[in-house]
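Input.
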Amino acid sequence: MFDKVLIANRGEIALRIHRACREMGIRTVAVHSTADEDAMHVRLADEAVCIGPPQARQSYLNIPAILSAATITGAEAIHPGYGFLSENADFASMVEEHGLTFIGPSPEHIRMMGDKITAKNAAKAAGLPVVPGSEGALESLEDARRNAEEIGYPVLLKATAGGGGKGMKVARDASEIEEAWRLARSEAGSAFGNADLYMEKYLGKPRHIEIQILADNHGEVVHLGERDCSLQRRHQKVLEEAPSPALNSVMRESIGSIATAAMKKIGYRNAGTIEFLYEDGKFYFIEMNTRLQVEHPITEMITGLDIVREQVRIAAGAPLGYTQEDVRFSGHAIECRVNAEHPETFVPSPGKVGIYHAPGGLGVRVDSALYTGYRVPPNYDSMIAKLIVHGTSRNECLMRLRRALGEFVVEGMNTTLPLHQRLIAEPDFVNGDYDIHWLEHFVHRQD
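Output.
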């Protein structure tokens, strides 16, 4: 096992990784920008190294600075968390080239799943069901027209190097394809430096279902069930729950078995999440995240497994030590992402925390790096906390979540806590009757 791990991240996820390491008896190294010198993970880590100014490119994305910090502190491994460098195959390779262990999948698998077309082809070859679409990148507008006619409208144009909803445009009929092509290419080029697009069939009312998997270096792969991440705004997840209200145990076991078989076939290792669109009883692969997910806590709540701990154990060469039959699912869990944003306009609202009071009680967990007096910097993602609630049933979970949201106090800035209070009171959500477009319609109704 490792003696010392460097955490190449910030905020709540850096604190989450620190806690898992501390429980395992592993010392931690926090890296931070000058904007984060008072951050909670910096205060609690055994050692801390400043790696640059507030701008992420000069700090949390500064590979030489991070590797230097690992070298001078004697760290043996680096955990990238999520975001920043977590899915950068070159970074993972450099970590290994410096004689360190990257706590995550191999650079080859990160690279394979990092390009949407390569990922789709790999998934198809591994036996995962995919959305009907173009065989590869579209060569021209005319190529896009031909593919759209073959697939059938509506279609979705997507950036091959995309993520976060950027470079995605819908063409509902032939009259919209040219404008969608132009806008998607422009957005993809600006966001990723790569304007290449591919095409998929646009599904009308799908749910976003993802399967969490763990794979060791000894050929053992298990799935930890599914998460329903359908409540999204501008392709960004807002609230997640596990298990999905839309699936039964037969569907769950079926897609879980397909996912684990696919991961065994490609020789995947460590934690990963396979994301699907689900509509009319069918699953369609959309992408794979080769990292820890923001929403991993709800899976931990229903399985009792510490996914970060498992990542560290796997990276150290330990076998899983359990099989699929040993994984048990218990109750229901929901996670609310709390952002420092206006709950109606979604304008970012960084600032100094006046009063901070996290809810507690049975089945309530808060993953956050906030504390009274802390100043939330304006330089990074606006998520400041995750409220995770577990109950023996979905109904009990919802009742507990209403209570917990009412107790949660963050003064000094706007937050999306009021949005979550409104969301969980909506009949559609209470009934589990929603899809990936539902939240956008709900937000527009509130305007």
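Residues 249-266 form the longest helix (18 residues).
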